[in-house]
Amino acid sequence: MDVLETRVDTSSDQFKRNAEAMEKKVARMRKELQTAIEDRSPKAYERHVSQGKLPVRERLGLLLDRDSPFLEIGALAAWKMYDERVYSAGIIGGIGVVEGREVMINANDAMIKGGTIYPMGVKKSLRLQEIAMQNRLPCINLIDSGGAFLPLQSEVFPDAQHGGRIFYNQAWMSKMGIPQVTAVMGLCTAGGAYIPAMSDYVVHVRNTGAVFLGGPPLVRAATGEIVSAEELGGADTHCAISGVSDFPADDDADAIRLVRQIVSRLPPTKKCALPMRTPKPPLYDPKELYGVIPERLSVPYDCREVIARVVDGSEFLEFKPMYGSTLVCGWAYLHGYPVGILANNGVLFPESARKGTQFIQLCNRDKIPLIFLQNISGFIIGSKYEKEGITKEGHKMVAAVSLAEVPKITMVVGGSFGAGNYAMCGRAYSPRFLWMWPNAQISVMGGEQAADVMISVKQDQLMRDGEPPLPPDQVEGLRQFTVETSEEESNAYFSTARMWDDGLVDPARSREVLALSLAAALNAEIPDYSGFGVFRM
Q1: DSSP, res 191
Q2: Which residues partner with 370 through β-bridges?
Q3: Could you report the per-residue pLDDT of 22-71, keeping only the tens digit for each?
Q4: Are strands 180-189 and 201-205 parallel, antiparallel or unpaired?
Q5: Which DSSP symbol is given to 90?
Q6: 157 near 164, Cβ under 8 Å?
Q7: Which of 86, 395, 410, 536 has the fewest CB atoms within 10 Å of its CB?
């Protein structure tokens, strides 16, 4: 493969200004992540540990293999979405290594509102299950939850994509042969009681773990029976009498020990075999990405500079380098894994879309995973390009992305606007993982473009109604409002709070995050090539 030669002057003033701007964004991201990990009330902490429980991050530390990586999903889910500080949507979730194998972990944080489930907590749990099913990952649930957050129960309970879907997914995972291990480490109430009941293996902690459809207050109100939580749904009840639980544990540490033993005896899995190479680092320091990326999304740069700081040896075999230049496609290796990369160098023209479609077909046929590096304002528009068939060429690329059966991993490194989001494998196109840099934005269009459209539409409406046009001060007011609203609702934090992505990533760690994503994805077999649908020619 050819070695990508950088054309970036790392000593230039522009590089330094870019680097300073990105460092500020990364510093803010790190601060937000640290706050999500550490900011718990002393009262909640004291109450938790007084019951003999370990904080959720300590449970996780005991569960994971020593010095192994943890790929956290949705670390800033629910960011500033509720009045209370519901960090990470009250759930720590992600892919880790337990007894030498990759697993999906879903752990309640009982120091956040007693582990009660908020609407975004449900969405996060469903996303974790989706990842587990797509990538055939065993699931470990560490349950410590007071059930649904009742003030928002209407957003948690009834809809098809709300709480009940969790149990539906559990049934499907069982049918798919995906092992599910649950440790009951606190309350597991109401519908949540079905999580252990629908798992393959249940570890139950004495004195703190309790499983019941209705807790002692509800039982008393409904039947008049007075019973303690331990009598009603404790470890001895469910391990010795009901059979809901399988293994009693003395405390959290003992429960984690049992979970690890269960995982150790699960049937081995064979990873999808790809033609691997010995990994080697890029020729250029990945942290140089801070200076490569312009402070403003509207300023263009060569996406090959990103590729050169992500792939093994900065080696890249570019496909059709002289054709459709606004989309860069080619093959590389990443931590030894073969990958096909699609990266934006501008708006998508008809020839760019044709090139992308062909490249996706080749990678899909050859079982090469696809990585999309999104920085896209959309498809080119105008009468000239409509006559050249931009709509049908875009359809081909969107269809190819939709139907490709190899693992697809997307990283939004800049803008993700309009139908460009679709063609570059946005969330709706089932990438196995979708990550965002802290400078990224996602929306129908940029703020300035949205403002121009809104003003034009308003002026046209007034003209049709025989009214005078908006005066300059009102035009400027509408412009400012539209730009500010667009920027607020398109920034990376707005996106990650709502789990439109799987998390924010330090650009300098992109290589590691992509490699961990690939490693997880290859737990599932890549289907044999089955073709595509009908392309409008």
Answers
A1: G
A2: 340, 408
A3: 999 999 999 999 999 999 999 999 999 999 999 999 999 999 999 999 99
A4: parallel
A5: G
A6: yes
A7: 536
Going by the DSSP 8-state scheme, the letter that residue 310 receives in this structure is T
Amino acid at 408: K
Q: What span, in angstroms and rounded, lies between the C-alpha atoms of 372 and 309?
A: 15
- Kindly indicate the confidence band of residue 14, based on its pLDDT and cuts at 50, 70 and 90: very high
> Mutual orientation of helices 510-521 and 119-135 as an angle, nearest 10°?
60
The pair phi, psi for residue 412, each rounded to 5°, is -90, 110
pTM: 0.93
Residues 339, 311: Cα–Cα separation, whole Å: 9
Calpha distance 56→60 (Å, rounded): 6
Buried b (16+ CB within 10 A) or exposed e, 156-184: bbeeeebbbbbeebbeebeeeebbbbbbb
What tokens appear for 451 in the block? 């403002």
Tokens of 7: 């054309």
Cα–Cα dist 350/128, whole Å = 37
Cα gap 190→197, rounded to integer Å: 12
| Phi, psi dihedrals of residue 108, rounded to the nearest 5° | -70, 145
